[in-house]
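Sorry to interrupt, but I need a hand with the structure work. Could you write out one complete protein record for me, on any chain you like? Could you add the entry underneath, on a fresh line?
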Amino acid sequence: MYSPEDTNHPANITGGNVIVEMPADVRDWCSTVEGTENGGILSECGNASTAPAVLNESTGYPIQGVSEYPNTTSVSVPMDFSFLEDGNHTSSLQMTDWAGNSHSVSWNLTLDRTPPLLFWALSPSTGELLQEHRQKLSWWSSEDVHVIAYVDGGELPEAVGSNGSYEFELNATGPHELCLQAVDSTRLQENSNRFLECRTLLLPESTYDTGVVDSSGILVSLDSIEIVINRHETQEIRWSRSGSDDFHIIEPGNSSVTLVLDLIEGQNDFTIEVDSLNSTDSYAISLERDSIPPVLDFHEDGYREAPLNSYRQFSGACEPGLLVNLQSPSSSRDFICPSSGQFTVNLSVPTHPGMHLVQGSSTDATKNTQTHSIEVLKQDWSDWALEDATSSGPMLWWSLAGGMATLAALGVAAARVLRPGPEVEG
């Protein structure tokens, strides 16, 4: 139902009945719609078949017992606007009563029966895939319209015009429904021209996958390690050390972040969290720091005649399970330290006299290396015997015993020479 005031705005009408209320004494009438832009004319006329009764106080009421009579009459005029083009038109009504008096009234009528045509796109996106949660919806229309966009049922502010855009952020990955609704200048009419289109688009969860390059589970001797985190530039990173109340935050920014984690001796456990819209990716980093060199110590198993021998025995302590190397200028030995942590090995030294260096080394899994060295003496027999005698060793007594034996032998020989011979009688 349209009132005369409604026709001040464009109307989506293809046909209907025009209800005209006219004075009761109208004899003839014509309703006309004439195009002012695109031409065309529509006219419907009618008349009253009998004149209205005349009221006369002297003769009484025309109908016995009826004292009230209407001043107006309503006429329904069928109108077909289908052959008229959209645009501005002028409607008019001409009336003539039984006494020959005429009157006319006119009003504007604008027809708009074409829905608006809209085009819209999202960026950044490819087909039905959204490339990230920050989106821009741009739209263009064939005419000025009132537009409302809906994101997952939520309404964005109304826009007016022939083009425009919306910027919004999604708060979750997965499918999202986006709708665009538009109405043209018939929006105040009962039968308005409307445009509505909805699309379902996917924001992949993989867009916010976080890559963490770490060395979790290894044994290191470093003071710190670097963790490389590849993220979406809008993601916040939080990390903490197990057992510590300190909480560290890396604000959104670069897509690649290098996180430096200081290590303490022993076990190091860290937790790294990366926000991913409606979820949080969590990573555990666990590694052990060992910066203490392994145990290694040894000595020569000496005995009195050892300096005369080029084949020596060494005993010492080491770290079980680690490779140990002992070497002299003339030979080398590699062995795995036994579970007892104690070892005894034989090693040859050069045969020429002098001090000879014996070196040892052992390296653990974190490349910590321990070294130890000693010097051993190699002597020839004369040097050794002199030194042994000088130090009151057995060679002294052997030398004294040998000297005494020599003196005794000389005394016996002299006695034999000096002994008188038998007398010879003459």
